[in-house]
Design goal:
- The structure is a homodimer.
- The first copy, chain A, has 2 domains: 5-165, NAD(P)-binding Rossmann-like Domain (Rossmann fold, 3-Layer(aba) Sandwich), CATH 3.40.50; 172-291, N-(1-d-carboxylethyl)-l-norvaline Dehydrogenase, domain 2 (Orthogonal Bundle).
- In chain A, the strands form 2 sheets. Chain A has a 6-stranded parallel beta sheet, with helices on both faces.
- The radius of gyration of chain A is 20 Å and the shape is elongated.
- Chain A has helices spanning 14-23, 35-43, 52-57, 69-77, 82-85, 100-113, 126-132, 143-156, 169-197, 202-210, 217-228, 237-254, 259-273, 284-291; strands at 5-8, 28-31, 47-48, 61-64, 91-94, 117-120, 123-124, 135-140, 157-164.
- Helices cover 55% and strands 13% of the residues of chain A.
- The longest helix of chain A has 29 residues, at 169-197.
- The termini of chain A are far apart.
- The first copy, chain A, is built from 14 helices and 9 strands.
- The first copy, chain A, is α/β, with parallel strands linked by helices.
């Protein structure tokens, strides 16, 4: 790739995404909150950007992959942030899952102020998708910026959709994704728990339902995890809880009440409160089971 | 088919199912609450069973396809019911969607008392699936009865799964199906309404989400109906409301609280209360939209 890439945020998702860019021969500068993944990326051929500002100075395209809105605000707009090192003509791609309003009202305008075009490009597909380069990527922002970003995004994802020209539209699509995924997981958990309490073979139920209108990737993959009791993430409950907080806040801001989503958010929050936030979101079935008086295994 | 079939209940689902049996050359006796579909079936080659008792007397296998538990109770156990005309060695297949407890505690034992084996075999796939013979069929009851029923079921369905030997297990699987379908429809409705209120292209959101973990047959088919505003059933809201009442009652009886399902039931009930019970269940988006202050089109 001819353009120099900067990558900020080398967590469970960001590290494998950055490694894929290196494997494709990118000239890469990196920064992260903790040191070990930086050293790992340097060993693999990346340059240490020292701070977000330094990464921006050494790059044509700056990618951020951070936990939530406050971290993106800090890294992009804060002291020694991307904006301080940026120059006109650069492109910034925020692949974090954050509030669509923060993307639209804060990040994109601040970058525009220094001549940098912004894309919000949150992903779906989890750590496995990040490692394999098969993430789904939902992109908001100007079409020319989307086209410029395409070769970089294609290194990390497969199903890459330009949702709209307006900043934040990618984040809105991701919020929609998390609403549907969360509600489907909880519905599968309620259905399989009812079946179990009724003395019915839950594997048979899953099999029968996959052939009809209840079919979903969640029933297939997460239903199987619930049956096999494999709750290593995957995607952590505490992150899905955060994502539904974003969705409900967006619903509040845009005037779109989300009653079912609120129930799912509360259930995820209950799991976080009892110390299960680091389990895969399919472990939501444990909450349904405890309501049903089943001991959790 | 060598065995004589009786078919009771010639409604929106029962009539096309009975017609398929005739097309496959079955010797068929029929009964229904109203006269016109009986005459239609007679014109197509069926015999008038006059009453459920008469249908049972003229058949080796008696199929019922009725609206809800009270109708099945009446037709099977009531005056001039199936039990009165039944004899040892017959098979009864209830393809209605009713309470698993009624199947287990009332219908199967009463039939066993006159030497008749019972299957509960509720279906999924709607009127289209009934016409095309592509229904999903979830079957509870003894394995030998299931095997005997197979040629008959294969005339009406494609994905036919024996859920368990215990009566009612097919109904439990169907309740699980309706839980997941209802919750997914409501989640898609909330997601697409949020997107619309945020000014985002809902068709793009559907497209992007179909490529990831939010994929489901509901997002595909019912999501498209919501976008195109085509709300002719399909599957009627009032029937889905009835089915979730069954699911929640079963949850109560088996001690399995269903918090998300309750929210969806209430939403479907609100649609019924405002006179929209005959629309397709994808029209649930109209309720979400009215909460969001959007006028319904």
């Amino acid at each position: 790739m001819p353009e120099r890439i900067g990558f900020i945020g080398l967590g469970i998702m960001g590290k494998p995404m950055a490694l894929r860019l290196l494997q494709l021969g990118c000239e890469l500068s990196v920064h992260s909150r903790s040191r070990p993944p930086i050293d790992e990326l340097i060993a693999a051929g990346a340059r240490d950007g020292t701070l977000p500002k330094g990464v921006a100075e050494q790059s044509d395209i700056v990618i951020t992959m951070l936990p939530d809105s406050p971290e993106v605000r800090e890294v992009v707009l804060g002291r020694n942030g991307v904006v301080e090192g940026a120059r006109s003509g650069q492109l910034a791609i925020d692949m974090s899952t954050i509030s669509p309003l923060v993307s639209h009202d804060e990040i994109a305008p601040a970058l525009a102020g220094v001549g940098v075009k912004a894309l919000d490009a949150p992903v779906s597909g989890g750590q496995r998708g990040a490692i394999d380069g098969t993430l789904s990527i939902m992109v908001g922002g100007p079409r020319d910026a989307f086209e410029r970003a395409m070769p970089v995004l294609q290194a990390m994802g497969k199903n890459i959709v330009h949702i709209g020209e307006e900043p934040g539209t990618g984040q809105t699509a991701k919020a929609c994704n998390q609403i549907i995924v969360g509600a489907t997981i909880m519905a599968v958990a309620e259905a399989l728990t009812l079946a179990r309490k009724a003395g019915v073979d839950v594997a048979k139920v899953r099999e029968a339902l996959l052939g009809g209108f209840a079919q979903s990737r969640i029933l297939d993959v997460h239903g199987q995890r619930m049956i096999e009791r494999t709750f290593e993430p995957g995607f952590r409950i505490k992150l899905h809880h955060k994502d539904l907080n974003i969705a409900l806040a967006a619903g509040g801001a845009y005037g779109s009440p989300l009653g079912e989503t609120a129930i799912v958010r509360e259930a995820l929050g209950a799991m976080v409160a009892r110390g299960d936030g680091d389990l895969d979101h399919s472990a939501l079935i444990q909450l349904v089971e405890s309501l049903a008086g089943l001991s959790v295994s």
